[in-house]
């Protein structure tokens, strides 16, 4: 068959396909009802066959290029991966995130150990040894810290100069700082897991040092009520980000039966779910830290909320979406 | 035929046809990145007046800084296929099967940007792109994504309407394709160049000058349309 006859026979179908593509590619019209959408896969197969014919019959390069662009646009529409933002997010937090974390529980416990054990060890050591805190923080930082949690200034985290209005500013700061740390902890895992390892250790040691130092100075009455509210969410989330990073490192160091690249891709898919969940946990922690932890509630209540937080985190991560665990 | 040295990567679709993905190299991507930095900076300048609202404003600015640092590429890639800078450079981000990038892959490639940025200004990313044949930085490797040239629909070329003449017998298919390509695109080059190309193609029959151009166009018409009485 000559090119001209081929073109004029098929061009009504190409036009129909082109019109449908234009509609599909327009995000506003995509949501609206597009008539005859059911015929799209069939049209796409027809176009693929026309494109293959045009190539095998050595029609003109211009026609082939034209058909190829059409097929490529159609391929994108037909095989695009779906997403329904709000429902997907709810489902993600309710099921997918805790489920993925449980599937990688060994890595999570390693990350948690790398984070919490140095924290506790450093906390106890600094509590015992006056000078040890200066091995991690310089004198200026320690002085700042001491003035921040000095019990003679009544509201911890919200000094006399701090107004309720600054809660929003602090929220912005906590989100930027903490979620940023979470993301970096994950990304560091790509350096054979070393980046995550170092960030977990350093953060664990510093937090421990601060807690131990302030408790030794008897500033604990301002420090502990302040951190108890958001601590459960923030600390767990950082450990989860570390676990996500270690997953990347594991793929590179011990890929098992797969190639390193295949292992990295598979683990990155799970790791990004962990990071996403941890980021949302860090945002909730920032809400608590900015609007509750610095608030005027009595210490007893704050400790109660802290304990409740740990229970909630543990129950959520251990049980949410458990019915479907076997599915994976 | 040997594989030509090119940046075209062929992906075979489930329908059994090859799609060409034209991957983008470090230079256009670096320019796109610089454009994005300018755009992000401009967006940041837009929200700076919020500082007038003291605490509330500061909070919103800090959230904007966070969003521009981490979420800007993700939001644009997932919603529009590419960041504004990439769109200006005619690039887009796709999965390695040619479909538009979705949230998980976009998050992976953009969060791992931190590592590609090491040790200074994309050192790791550049090495990775130069080593990998598809110009993927580490984030792209982990996410399974490619940065490709978006398809600008080519202007539909038309073959000149001239009386068809059969080309010499036994013409190899490469020569037939070259003749068709010449007929489609000959009008876009200068006259001297057109004649020069036509004389190469019409070498066997010894036509010169505009005569060679007419001869090649007539062959192309025959290849595409056959003879008027439908014999072809």
Automatic annotation (TrEMBL), chain A:
Signal peptide: none annotated. It holds the Pfam family SpoIIM. The chain crosses the membrane at residues 106-126, 168-187, 194-215, 235-253, 273-294, 300-319. Keywords: Membrane, Transmembrane, Transmembrane helix. It comes from the Bacteria. The keyword Metal-binding does not apply. This is Stage II sporulation protein M. It comes from Thiocapsa marina 5811.
UniProtKB/TrEMBL annotation, chain B:
Signal peptide: none annotated. It comes from the Bacteria. The chain crosses the membrane at residues 41-66. Keywords: Membrane, Transmembrane, Transmembrane helix. One of its GO terms (cellular component) is membrane. The keyword Cell cycle does not apply. Residues 23-144 form the RDD domain. It is found in: Membrane. It is a multi-pass membrane protein. Its main location: membrane. The keyword Membrane applies. This is RDD domain containing protein.
């Amino acid at each position: 068959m000559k090119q001209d006859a081929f073109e004029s026979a098929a061009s009504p179908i190409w036009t129909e396909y082109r019109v449908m593509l234009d509609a599909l590619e327009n995000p506003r019209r995509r949501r609206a009802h597009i008539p005859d959408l059911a015929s799209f896969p069939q049209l796409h197969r027809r176009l693929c066959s026309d494109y293959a014919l045009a190539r095998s019959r050595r029609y003109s390069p211009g026609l082939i290029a034209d058909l190829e662009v059409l097929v490529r646009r159609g391929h994108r529409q037909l095989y695009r991966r779906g997403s329904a933002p709000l429902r997907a997010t709810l489902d993600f937090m309710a099921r997918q995130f805790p489920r993925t974390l449980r599937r990688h529980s060994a890595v999570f416990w390693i990350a948690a150990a790398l984070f919490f054990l140095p924290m506790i060890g450093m906390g106890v050591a600094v509590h015992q040894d006056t000078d040890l805190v200066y091995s991690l923080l310089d004198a200026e930082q320690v002085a700042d810290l001491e003035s921040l949690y000095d019990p003679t200034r009544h509201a911890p985290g919200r000094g006399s100069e701090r107004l309720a209005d600054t809660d929003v500013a602090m929220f912005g700061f906590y989100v930027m700082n903490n979620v940023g740390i979470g993301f970096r902890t994950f990304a560091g895992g790509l350096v054979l897991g070393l980046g995550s390892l170092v960030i977990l250790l350093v953060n664990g040691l510093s937090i421990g040092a601060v807690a131990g130092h302030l408790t030794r100075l008897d500033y604990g009455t301002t420090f502990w009520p302040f951190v108890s509210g958001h601590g459960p969410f923030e600390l767990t989330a950082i450990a989860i980000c570390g676990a996500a990073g270690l997953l990347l490192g594991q793929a590179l160091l011990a890929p098992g039966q797969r190639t390193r690249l295949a292992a990295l891709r598979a683990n990155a898919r799970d790791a990004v779910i962990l990071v996403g969940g941890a980021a949302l946990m860090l945002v909730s922690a920032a809400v608590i830290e900015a609007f509750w932890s610095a608030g005027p509630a009595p210490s007893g209540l704050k400790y109660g909320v802290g304990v409740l937080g740990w229970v909630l985190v543990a129950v959520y991560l251990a049980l949410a979406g458990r019915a479907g665990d076997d599915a994976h | 035929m040997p594989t030509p040295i090119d940046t075209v990567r062929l992906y075979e679709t489930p329908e059994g046809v090859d799609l060409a993905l034209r991957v983008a190299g470090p230079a256009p991507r670096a320019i796109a990145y610089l454009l994005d930095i300018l755009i992000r900076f401009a967006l940041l300048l837009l929200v700076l007046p919020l500082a007038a609202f003291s605490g509330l404003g500061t909070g919103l600015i800090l959230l904007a800084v966070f969003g521009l640092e981490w979420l800007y590429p993700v939001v644009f890639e997932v919603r529009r296929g590419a960041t504004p800078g990439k769109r200006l450079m005619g690039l887009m981000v796709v999965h390695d099967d040619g479909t538009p990038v979705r949230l998980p892959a976009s998050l992976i490639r953009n969060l791992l940007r931190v590592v590609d940025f090491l040790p200074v200004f994309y050192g790791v990313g550049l090495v990775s792109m130069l080593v990998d044949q598809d110009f993927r930085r580490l984030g792209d490797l982990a996410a399974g994504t490619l940065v490709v040239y978006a398809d600008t629909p080519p202007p539909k070329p038309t073959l000149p309407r001239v009386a068809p003449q059969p080309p010499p017998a036994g013409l190899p298919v490469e020569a037939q394709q070259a003749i068709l390509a010449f007929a489609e695109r000959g009008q876009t080059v200068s006259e001297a160049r057109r004649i020069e190309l036509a004389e190469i193609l019409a070498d066997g029959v010894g036509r010169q000058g505009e005569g060679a151009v007419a001869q090649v166009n007539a062959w192309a018409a025959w290849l595409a349309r056959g003879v008027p009485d439908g014999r072809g």
